Amino acid sequence: MAKYNFDIKTNRENSSCVKYDLRKEIFGNADVIPMWVADMDIQTPDFIFEAIRNRCNHPFLGYTFRDESYNSAILEWYKRRHNWNIQSNWIEFCPGVVSGLNHVIRAFTKPGDKIIIQPPVYHPFFSTVENNGRVLVNNPLIERNGNYSMNFVELEQLADQGASMLILSNPHNPVGRVWNLEELTQLGNICVKHNVLVIADEIHCDLVYKPYKHIPLASINSNFAKNTITFSSASKTFNIAGLASGFVIISNPDMMKKYKHELEASGAGMGNIFGNEAVKAAFSKEGESWLNELLQYFEANIAFVESTLKQYLPKLKFTRPQGTYLMWLDFREFEMDDEALNNKLINEAGLGLNAGNGFGIEGSGFQRMNIACPRPVVQVALNKLIESFKDC
Ligand SMILES: Cc1ncc(COP(=O)(O)O)c(C=O)c1O
Q1: Which DSSP symbol is given to 82?
Q2: What spacing in Å lies between the alpha carbon of 314 and ligand 1's midpoint?
Q3: pLDDT one-digit tens code per residue, 103-160
Q4: Which of 65, 88, 218, 258 is deepest in the core (most CB within 10 A)?
Q5: What are the chain's domains?
Q6: What is the pTM of this model?
Q7: How far, in Å, CA of 184 to CA of 284, rounded?
């Protein structure tokens, strides 16, 4: 019997919530059903609040450090969930994965250096590279009938032409691929051979559906471990992004030293007390059983999207994600330009999704829909979508 009830719909308005309270600014319409930013409408679990409340019983909130219990929560979690034996001194804090990306770009590359990304991909990959004066090099994914793969032939050429870094999204946002051992091995080998440092953004690693399995790139072999910086966080999985507490895993001691130096130089290394407590509570036995149920709930949401679209809106193509709670919807058969598509979705269907071209031009004609919400919300959203597009 299910222990947790994910069907509860909670009002998040007027809580300075980016997903709800910025709808007018983002969509020009404050009434859209928000299914955009990767933030769940599933309540942050009680055991996390309990840990934070417990910490509040202590009468001081002074300077704090992350003690061994913080590191062991992370390493035990990785051992159990991802079969990766990491060591305590491989773990360091980052305020968030995006700030971490900025830090490593500054610490490990120089202005003008080339950095490879694989669009369509999470939009801050573009901005972190460009904001730091580095040169973006695109190695677009290949799409065939809704299935995405990497273009290794082109990757090898680009690496050979002298790139310093590659930023990997695994599982991939927005296309939902969980890269398999063969793919990761090919990518890792190319990068080691050409001396391209890999930044593995694995923030969605705990949101993977059976039979797929997340494989941390750095866990594959010692050469990859030496050449990889892995970022992750409990924030997506347990809905705690507002606590700004991610982490990085670096087994190469020289690289760890460089990372720490950059973190210190930016003054962002302390983190916050509540983030520390939340991470420990999340990466626990209770966190694990909560997550197992959550994944089943999302699988059912995804199956519901799939069967509903197949039956009522077959022109809208959709391939089940292997990981993430982000659906990558293919509207190309409707033959609308991106502006008209956005306009129809926002102002006619009343839906606030992420426009696909925000993930690179390869995403043109697509939209990303976040289904990390109670099923009744998905149902209402799909009804609106069908109503609006059925005669197109
Ligand atoms: C691939 C990916 N990386 C990073 C982030 C953001 O992480 P953070 O909030 O820790 O900066 C997201 C959030 O959607 C994401 O999808």
Answers
A1: H
A2: 31
A3: 999 999 999 999 999 999 999 999 999 999 999 999 999 999 999 999 999 999 999 9
A4: 218
A5: 18-45+286-386 (3.90.1150.10), 58-285 (3.40.640.10)
A6: 0.97
A7: 28
Structure-token match 């059976």, residue found: 210
Distance CA 185, CA 195 (A): 15
Find the DSSP H helices in the chain. 18-21, 23-27, 46-56, 68-82, 97-108, 124-131, 152-160, 181-193, 222-226, 235-238, 253-266, 273-282, 285-312, 338-343, 375-389
CA–CA separation, 286 vs 302, rounded Å? 24
Q: CB neighbours of 87 closer than 8 A, spacing ≥ 6?
A: 75, 251
Nearest-CA residue for atom 9 of ligand 1:
96
Q: At what angle do helices 46-56 and 273-282 cross, to 10 degrees?
A: 140
**CA angle centred on 272, ends 268 and 276, rounded to 5°:** 120
Q: Which residue has the tokens 């600014």?
A: 25
- The structure tokens listed for 263 are 């973190």
Question: Which tokens sit at 113?
Answer: 């250096």
Please answer whether residues 207 and 324 qualify as being in contact, where contact means their C-beta atoms are separated by less than 8 angstroms.
yes
Pocket residues: Cβ below 6 A from ligand 1: 38, 96-98, 122, 169, 173, 201, 203, 233, 235, 241, 246
Q: What is the pLDDT of residues 57-99, one digit of tens each?
A: 999 999 999 999 999 999 999 999 999 999 999 999 999 999 9
Amino acid (one-letter) located at 121 = V
Q: Using the mean position of ligand 1's atoms as its centre, give its distance from the Cα of residue 272 in Å.
A: 18
**Contact (Cβ atoms closer than 8 angstroms) between residue 226 and residue 252:** yes
| Residue 130 token pair | 């460009």
Task: Give the C-alpha separation, 51 to 73, whole Å.
Answer: 14
The number of beta carbons lying within 10 Å of the beta carbon of residue 82 is 19
Query: With contact defined as beta carbons under 8 Å apart, do 331 and 341 qualify?
Result: yes
